Amino acid sequence: MNPNNEDDAPELLPARMLNEFVYCPRLFFLEWVEGEFRESEDTIRGRTIHKRVDSESGNFSPSGGEELIHARSVLLSGTECGLIAKMDILEAKGKRVTPVDYKKGAKPPIPEGAWLADRVQVCAQGLILRENGFECTSGVLYYAASKTRVAVAFTDELVSITRDFVLRARNVAKNGILPPPLVDSPKCPRCSLVGICLPDEINALTGETEGKTRRIVPSLDSSLPMYVQEQGAWISKDGEEAVVHNPDGSRTQARLIDVSQLSTYGNVQITPPLRHELCDRGIPILHFSFGGWFYGITHGLNHKNVLLRQKQFEYAGNPEKSLVLARSFINGKIRNCRTLLRRNHPEVSQATLGELSKSAEQALTAANAGELLGIEGYAARVYFGHFGEMLRRNRDSITEFNFEERNKRPPRDPVNALLSYTYSLMAKDFTVTLMGVGFDPYLGFFHAPRYGKPSLALDTMEEFRPLIADSVVITLINNEEIQFSDFVKRAGAVTVTSEARKKILRAYERRLDSTIRHPIFDYTISYRRIIEVQARLLSRYLSGELSEYPPFCTR
């Protein structure tokens, strides 16, 4: 190893991350090691409070005179202590310096006057200042909510505690093992990463806690997908909004904060400023053909969690490990197919339900991928053999929506066209979700990898096909939301019109936003949220935190 190579030097630990470690080691690991971050009311409020001190000002150096000076947003590091910090305010007189750290909350009602995590953070700043030649014996914590200054003396005891936490944090990061979640902690509900950490869910699955799980994961998303399919339209950025300019001169606006993804169909243009802004915000742009074929994605830098992708490649390259996951995916899919038949078929036989139950059990013991594929194929024939009977017979045009068998590439009847289109929408959403978690969506455990094929997205959407896509198709037909005139038939192939796609998209998004009581955690949550939770649980299984992957199966 070259001692002069800066890339080989130990990474400096930010004082802010040290604060996170004292507060919650798991939060520290998620943020610093795995690179996770998510905005919340608290993070936005904290950033607002720091705006005034984030602007660099003040002439600051170890050789300063006796005049009291204030310097803002000073970045310093110390190689000996292994720390780096951007200090909000430094109050200096000569070589004596006092760091002032801003906190958004109120002064805590405890004898010490400040939380341990905050005292350790400002002490870490003191250690950096000392290493840079300054005299630093104390710091100040300013709690903005109560407008209170709390003095923190850098005693030998606090310095020793701080150095110990630095060592422990580095060891946790070096080990690469995600610390366990806090148990029933009041810290969790307000944490911005609670939907990533899943503390109560993980504790419930590992047996750490029993009983009803707190619903601290939001049941609904505050942002939603945006679809643009008007041919010749173009989309621009206007301040904090995305503006759709239609060929007829009309305009449609959407606040960027309300957009989770942007889907464009066919000849739709996006201006560079908007594309740059979406990439900067982590909002993916999904590209579809005019006919609805999902063929590409534009996004910002890849997720930083390389450790997860290492585990994914390790499992994908091991047939035995891949088979374990594939069994769970297919077991969940068959069980949910059975549930959909039981709920929507007017008179499904016990023999049919028994066949699907038997196939679901067989999937868990399949000896290899080929056998599992055969089990899945048989269950699909049983399921789709009765799918048409879930379509109501109380309409004159029902013969137009007859369904005899599943066909694709291309679909040869309206029902199959609806199924193929909704499956394509699902592939898009699962690809986006998996990328957001840190996976490579193109390398799966059951579907064979192929150029341009999001195999992992297809794997993880298996258990959701009947619950989301098939359910949407049944609803569209049975509620007469879609007509036979919404389809175009050419050379034996059937596709949907652009107006029909709008109807399908509305029904599809309604389904994703519909809520259901979670069968394991017993709280109400939307399907859109469940997809992300399942992706997170898959990542926890690959990391070794969970002993098995739990497929999502409705009761």
Keywords:
single chain; 555 residues; alpha/beta; Lambda Exonuclease, Chain A; Ribosomal Protein L15, Chain: K, domain 2; 3 domains; six-stranded mixed β-sheet; 17 helices; 42% helix; disordered N terminus
Indicate the CATH topology of the largest domain: Four Helix Bundle (Hemerythrin (Met), subunit A)
Named at the architecture level, the CATH assignment of the largest domain is: Up-down Bundle
Described by strand count, sense and barrel closure, the largest sheet is: 6 strands, mixed
CATH superfamily of the largest domain: CRISPR-associated endonuclease Cas1, C-terminal domain
**Overall mean pLDDT:** 86
What is the 3D form? elongated
Distance between the termini: 57 Å
| Helix content bin | 40-55%
Number of strand segments: 18
Q: Which regions have little confidence, pLDDT < 50, spanning 5+ residues?
A: 1-9, 394-398
Round the Cα radius of gyration to an integer and report it.
Answer: 28 Å
Strand composition percent: 15-25%
Structural class computed from helices and strand pairing: alpha/beta
